[in-house]
Design a protein that fits this description.
- Helix 1 links the parallel strand 1 (10-13) and strand 2.
- A seven-stranded parallel sheet has the order 3-2-1-4-5-6-7, sandwiched between helices.
- The protein folds into two domains: 10-188 and 228-248, Rossmann fold (3-Layer(aba) Sandwich), CATH 3.40.50; 192-226, no CATH class.
- It starts with 9 loop residues before the first strand and ends in a 7-residue tail after the last strand.
- It has helices at 19-30, 42-51, 69-83, 106-134, 155-175, 193-206, 210-218, 229-240; strands at 10-13, 34-39, 59-63, 88-91, 137-142, 180-187, 251-254.
- 42% of the residues are buried.
- By secondary structure, the chain is α/β, with parallel strands linked by helices.
- The chain has eight helices and seven strands, in the order E-H-E-H-E-H-E-H-E-H-E-H-H-H-E.
- Helix 1 crosses helix 8 and helix 6 (193-206) packs across helix 7 (210-218).
- It binds 1,4-dihydronicotinamide adenine dinucleotide.
- 1,4-dihydronicotinamide adenine dinucleotide binds next to helix 1 and helix 6.
- 1,4-dihydronicotinamide adenine dinucleotide (NAI) binds at residues 14-15, 17-21, 39-40, 64-67, 92-96, 115, 142, 144, 187, 189-190, 192-195.
């Protein structure tokens, strides 16, 4: 294997400005891919691009709201202008919401589906057909442990992530003989802003301290720790490699052993 296994590959990462998306952008760039990091926060994207100066790859940014089809179309046009063609798409942009069913609103449900599921569908539709045409591609969807099982208080999030998983499997089947793979990574709690927001909600609802709230969520995880964004990024980069071409349509668990019975 070469030191830069993704040299010459071009990658688009949604929600790339922070958290898991930023870690994936860094990992793919470190492996030699040219990257287009997309997100809604221009300043955060610029900061990420600045931090990658000297990485020896092209680093581009684009503002894109994946809940807005026109914004995705504009981002895809920019990707064409900056990168030429796209080999790797990481559908990472996502949002969560937790509440018992009687407090989940139709608005919550529609927002979680628009960002997590429809955003993944539209971005994949924008790039994967051309990957199939060129005979090589990788689609990596950041799903969740909630894509593999039902969990309390996250019915809309879990439903949207299950939709992502079904979509991933179908795209994998559809493109299997065209050199394109589609897989989902399904982490448990990751050390990012999203988990901080979960902790803040627990603090608000229960009066626990932040550390007590953290201890209470870790109690539900087999390894009693948060997954790091870099662990997720490492698996995403691995899936982009040549040696991962046989991995297709999988829900890759990164939950410390949640389903070991
Ligand atoms: P985060 O909240 O730090 O990052 C989410 C990213 O998605 C941000 O860059 C945000 O701006 C972007 N985003 C949200 N809505 C968007 C929209 N409409 N258009 C474009 N970008 C949008 O959280 P984190 O943890 O980095 O989340 C990344 C992905 O990982 C999400 O899909 C999330 O559901 C998933 N995930 C996170 C877990 C966690 O415990 N943090 C666990 C399992 C999965």
């Amino acid at each position: 294997m070469t030191a830069r296994p993704l040299a010459g590959r071009r990658a688009v990462i949604t929600g790339g400005a922070r958290g898991i998306g930023a870690a994936i952008t860094r990992a793919l760039a470190a492996d030699g891919a040219d990257v287009l990091a997309c997100g809604r926060n221009e300043d955060a994207l610029r900061e990420l691009a600045d931090s990658l100066e000297g990485a020896g790859v092209e680093v581009h940014t684009a503002t894109c709201d994946v809940a807005d089809p026109d914004s995705i179309t504009m981002m895809a046009t920019l990707a064409g202008e900056h990168l030429g063609h796209v080999d790797i798409l990481v559908n990472n942009a996502g949002c969560a919401h937790s509440a018992p069913l009687h407090h989940q609103t139709l608005e919550d449900w529609n927002r979680l589906f628009a960002v997590n599921a429809t955003g993944t569908f539209l971005c994949t539709k924008a790039f994967a057909p051309a990957m199939a045409q060129q005979g090589w591609g990788r689609v990596i969807n950041i799903a969740s442990v909630a894509a593999r099982t039902g969990l309390r208080y996250v019915s809309a999030y879990s439903a949207a992530k299950h939709a992502v998983m079904g979509f991933t499997r179908s795209i994998a089947a559809e493109m299997a003989d065209r050199g394109v793979t589609a897989n989902a990574i399904c982490p448990g709690y990751v050390d990012t802003d999203m988990t901080e927001q979960t902790l803040a909600r627990i603090v608000e609802k229960t009066g626990m301290s932040r550390d007590e709230a953290l201890a209470s969520i870790l109690q539900t995880t087999p390894q009693r720790r948060l997954i790091t964004p870099e662990e997720v990024a490492h698996i995403a980069a691995m899936l982009c490699g040549e040696n991962a071409r046989g991995i297709n349509g999988q829900a890759i668990g990164m939950d410390g052993g949640e389903f070991l019975g």
